[in-house]
Amino acid sequence: MRIFISGGAGFIGSHLCKKLLHEKHTVICVDNFITGDKRNVAELSKNKNFTLIEHDITKPLQIDGSLDWVFHFASPASPKDYLQYPIKTLKVGTLGTHICLGIAKSKKAKFFMASTSEVYGDPSVSPQPEEYWGNVNPVGPRSCYDEAKRAAEALTFAYNRQHNVNTRLIRIFNTYGPFMRLDDGRVVSNFIHQALTGQDITIYGDGAQTRSFCYVDDLVRGIIKYMDVDYSGPLNLGAPFEFTIRELAEKVIALTDSKSHLVSMPLPQDDPKQRRPDISKAVKLLGWEPVVSLEEGLKYTIAYFKQRLSA
Ligand code: NAD
Ligand code: UDP
Questions:
Q1: Does residue 20 lie within any of the structural domains?
Q2: Catalytic member of 82, 120, 145, 159
Q3: pTM exceeds 0.85
Q4: Which of 75, 117, 123, 278 has an alpha carbon 20 to 30 Å from 210's alpha carbon atom?
Q5: Annotated catalytic, 145?
Q6: Is residue 253 part of a domain?
Q7: Closest-CA residue to 220 (of 80, 20, 5, 50)
Q8: Which among 151, 126, 157 is positioned nearest to 233, based on CA atoms?
Q9: Is residue 21 helix, strand or coil?
Q10: DSSP annotation string for 174-195
């Protein structure tokens, strides 16, 4: 197949490009590197089936030839990144989604939207099933991301209903692994980076807030399975095991054998207190569930961070 991926030089996008190339597909990756890294796709660029286009997907783009699948992954995704680029985040979630849907429509390709658990905001229901409509502050600092993704979901369904575009929509829960930027500010990257460099481990608030961490290979396996299932979503993909942020810090310290200390920092505004996916729909539809434990996934990620720090 010929497959288009926006945001393909980012953390998850680069894993997906790699997997699709491995399955002998042709991959056209579009990225403007606002939060991605050229090094993520440096190795892939040697593959004759891989094309990298440096382009801002909020602006129109002409792709020659046919396309079978269009994936829209472009968007700043770490709170640190989207707080730095609130308008660009809104634009890529709305205008960027519109452009990618237009490409899929014109090529009669299947469209895939990478949405997020952030559409549930600070949830009052746990675990979060797809039927939960969420608890989002529409004018808070995180709204540039949450509302952009909610608009992207609405656009995806509008194209499905009005133009019969064959669409897929997932809500990704906290995913981690190699090829995350060391300084992306997300909790896993921060803690590993801090532990390996002997800095204090920064716990925001009391560390009792929870997240459920999915290893990237598990997520990508779920995405590929979903493309062959006739269901327009939304579909939660993530790991159903919930940890407090303090527990995560303790695990990272133990696995890195670090002497770093935990320090408390202010909790950012509207930081969700809990997050855990109800994945029963994905289990039933795809026969999928994550298989990599947090310890195992952290070990792979720590190995990657060590290698990057010594390069
Ligand atoms: P990332 O920041 O590593 O990747 C995003 C990529 O999109 C980057 O390479 C960036 O340069 C590119 N991009 C951003 N705006 C662009 C634009 N206007 N034009 C072209 N390229 C642009 O983040 P990630 O963790 O790989 O996230 C990828 C997608 O998955 C995002 O849409 C994000 O919302 C979603 N997601 C990720 C997680 C997670 O835990 N990693 C959770 C929920 C949703
Ligand atoms: N967090 C933390 N210390 C850090 C970075 C993040 O305690 O150095 C917390 C953050 O407040 C949130 C959780 O870890 O409660 C996950 O944050 P992240 O930025 O990874 O993404 P989120 O899940 O909030 O989108």
A1: yes
A2: 145
A3: yes
A4: 75
A5: yes
A6: no
A7: 20
A8: 157
A9: helix
A10: -EE-TTS-TTS--HHHHHHHHH
Say whether 98 sits in a helix, a strand or coil: helix
Residue 201 placed within a domain: no
CA dihedral 134, 140, 144, 150 (to 10 degrees): 20
Q: What is the largest CA-CA distance in the chain?
A: 58
Using a 6 Å cutoff on CB, does residue 245 contact ligand 2? yes
Backbone angles phi, psi at 244, to 5 degrees: -75, 160
Ligand closest to Cα of 249 equals 2
Within a domain: 287: yes
Ligand 2 neighbour 126 (Cβ under 6 A):
no
Question: At 232, which amino acid appears?
Answer: S
154-165: buried (b, 16+ CB within 10 Å) or exposed (e) per residue? ebbbebbeeeeb
> Which residue's CA is the closest to the ligand 2 atom numbered 14?
187
Retrieve residue 158's tokens: 């509008």
pLDDT tens by residue, 183-196: 999 999 999 999 99
Query: What is the domain range of residue 57?
Result: 2-178+214-240+276-292
Task: Quick: pLDDT tens for 158-182.
Answer: 999 999 999 999 999 999 999 999 9
Among all bound ligands, the one having the nearest atom to the CA of 14 is 1
For the Cβ of 79 lying below 6 angstroms from any atom of ligand 1, the answer is: no
How far apart are the CA of 48 and the centre of ligand 2, in A? 39
Place of tokens 């308008």: 87
280: domain CATH number is: 3.40.50.720
Residue carrying the six token digits 């090529």: 107
Find out whether the beta carbon of 240 lies less than 6 Å from any atom of ligand 1.
Answer: no
DSSP sequence for 242-294:
EEEHHHHHHHHHHHHT----EEEEPPPTT--S---B--HHHHHHH-----S-H
14 by Cβ neighbours in 10 Å (0-12 / 13-18 / 19+) ranks as buried
- Domains contained in the chain, number: 1
pLDDT digits (tens, 9 = 90+) for 126-153: 999 999 999 999 999 999 999 999 999 9
